[in-house]
C-alpha cells in the first residue's frame, strides 16, 4: 500500500470511528472558508499526477459543490474510479459540500445505521481527504426499500452525513447574496411507490400534503437570490421508467417551482446526464448521471443536452451566475451551462 492509499484508508477509518464523521466541517461563513482556503494553499502532501485532468477556471470566491447520486454499487462498475476522480477534482477546486439526491444504496437500502453497506457503498469509497466535507442527502426509491429511519439517523454515526430530515433546506452565503437549496423527498410523492407497501413500506406512510405545505412555506419565506430544489426523481426526462413518475412529480412540484421562481431543479434516478428547459418554463431541469452505472438516453422536447456516460456534476455559484459542469468518469467536461441573474 503506497502512502496515498494509506492516508485515504486512515482518513476514512478516523472519520468514522473516532470523529463520528468528517475530519473537516464545511465552512459556515465566507471568512471561515477563506481561512480554510489559505490553510489548504499552504499545505503540501503527495498526490497522484493531475496533469491530464483539465478543469475549468473557477473564481476563488465562488461557492462550489458536487452533485452525485445513484452511487451505491459497493465500489463496482465505475463507482470507485468516479469517487477517486471526485477527490482529485476537490484537491484542485475548493468544494464546500456534496449534494446527494438519493440511491446512495442499491438495491434494498440499509437495515440500520450499522449496516456494512455504509462502509462498502459510502465511507470506504468516498474516502479521499477532500471529500470529508458535508454531504446533504435525500432518500431515493432504493432507500425506501429498506429502513429509511436509519438513513436519517446515520448523521449520529458519520459527522459528514448532514441529512437531518426527509425534507429540509440549507442557506449558503455568497459575496453579497445567498443561495438556498431545498431538499425534497420525492418517493412518497409518486403513486406507484405508495401502492407497493411490501416493497416500499414507508412511502405510503408519508404525508404528501405536509411536505408540499412545508415546501411552499419554505420557498415563500426565502430571501435568497438563487433558489435550487433537489430531489431524487425528475419532472422532465427521457427514460423508460413509468410516465406516472413524471406526471405525479409535475402535478405536485412544478406549480411551486414556477410560482416561487425557482432557478433550477436537480435530480438523479435516470442514470444519465440531461439538461431540459421545457417551452415556456424559466426553470432549468438538471438530471445528473449515476456515479456508478449509466443508461442510454436520447433527446426529447426541450432537451438542451444529454449524454449516457456515468459521472457527476460540478456546480459553481457567485452573486451573478450559476454554472454547472457535467463531467464523465475520466474527468472530461461534457457540457457546461451558465445561468445569470
UniProtKB/TrEMBL annotation:
The free-text cofactor remark is: Binds 2 iron ions per subunit.
Its name, as the record gives it, is: acid phosphatase
Would I find Metal-binding among this entry's keywords? Answer: yes
Q: Name one GO molecular function term.
A: acid phosphatase activity
Q: Which reaction does it catalyse?
A: a phosphate monoester + H2O = an alcohol + phosphate
Provide the residue positions that the database annotates as binding Fe cation 2: 103, 141, 232, 269
Q: Which Pfam families match?
A: Metallophos (PF00149)
Q: Where does Fe cation 1 bind?
A: 70, 103, 271
Q: Please list the residue ranges annotated as the Calcineurin-like phosphoesterase domain.
A: 67-272
Q: Which organism is it from?
A: Candidatus Parabacteroides intestinigallinarum
Key word Nucleotide-binding present in the record? no
EC nos: 3.1.3.2
Amino acid at each position: 500500500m503506497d502512502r496515498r492509499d494509506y492516508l485515504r484508508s486512515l482518513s476514512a477509518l478516523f472519520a468514522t470511528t473516532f470523529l463520528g464523521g468528517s475530519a473537516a466541517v464545511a465552512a459556515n461563513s465566507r471568512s471561515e472558508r477563506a481561512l480554510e482556503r489559505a490553510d489548504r494553499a499552504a499545505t503540501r502532501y503527495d498526490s497522484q499526477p493531475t496533469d491530464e485532468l483539465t478543469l475549468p477556471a473557477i473564481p476563488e470566491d465562488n461557492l462550489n459543490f458536487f452533485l452525485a447520486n445513484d452511487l451505491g454499487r459497493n465500489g463496482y462498475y465505475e463507482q470507485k474510479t468516479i469517487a477517486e476522480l471526485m477527490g482529485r477534482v476537490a484537491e484542485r477546486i475548493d468544494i464546500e459540500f456534496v449534494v446527494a439526491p438519493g440511491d446512495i444504496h442499491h438495491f434494498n437500502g440499509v437495515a440500520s445505521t450499522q449496516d456494512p453497506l455504509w462502509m462498502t457503498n459510502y465511507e470506504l469509497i468516498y474516502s479521499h481527504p477532500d471529500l470529508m466535507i458535508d454531504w446533504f442527502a435525500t432518500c431515493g426509491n432504493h432507500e425506501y426499500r429498506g429502513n429509511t429511519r436509519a438513513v436519517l439517523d446515520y448523521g449520529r454515526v458519520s459527522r459528514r452525513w448532514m441529512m437531518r430530515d426527509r425534507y429540509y433546506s440549507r442557506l449558503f452565503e455568497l459575496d453579497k447574496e445567498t443561495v438556498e437549496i431545498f431538499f425534497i423527498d420525492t418517493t412518497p410523492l409518486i403513486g406507484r411507490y405508495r401502492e407497493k407497501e411490501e416493497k416500499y413500506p414507508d412511502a405510503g406512510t408519508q404525508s404528501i400534503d405536509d411536505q408540499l405545505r412545508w415546501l411552499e412555506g419554505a420557498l415563500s419565506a426565502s430571501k435568497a437570490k438563487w433558489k435550487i430544489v433537489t430531489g431524487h426523481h425528475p419532472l422532465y426526462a427521457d427514460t423508460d421508467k413509468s410516465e406516472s413518475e413524471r406526471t405525479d412529480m409535475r402535478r405536485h412540484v412544478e406549480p411551486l417551482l414556477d410560482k416561487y421562481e425557482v432557478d433550477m431543479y436537480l435530480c438523479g434516478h435516470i442514470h444519465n446526464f440531461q439538461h431540459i428547459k421545457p417551452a415556456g418554463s424559466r426553470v432549468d431541469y438538471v438530471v445528473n448521471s449515476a456515479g456508478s452505472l449509466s443508461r442510454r438516453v436520447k433527446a426529447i422536447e426541450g432537451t438542451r443536452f444529454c449524454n449516457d456516460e456515468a459521472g457527476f456534476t460540478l456546480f459553481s455559484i457567485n452573486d451573478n451566475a450559476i454554472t454547472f459542469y457535467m463531467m464523465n468518469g475520466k474527468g472530461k467536461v461534457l457540457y457546461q451551462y451558465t445561468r445569470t441573474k
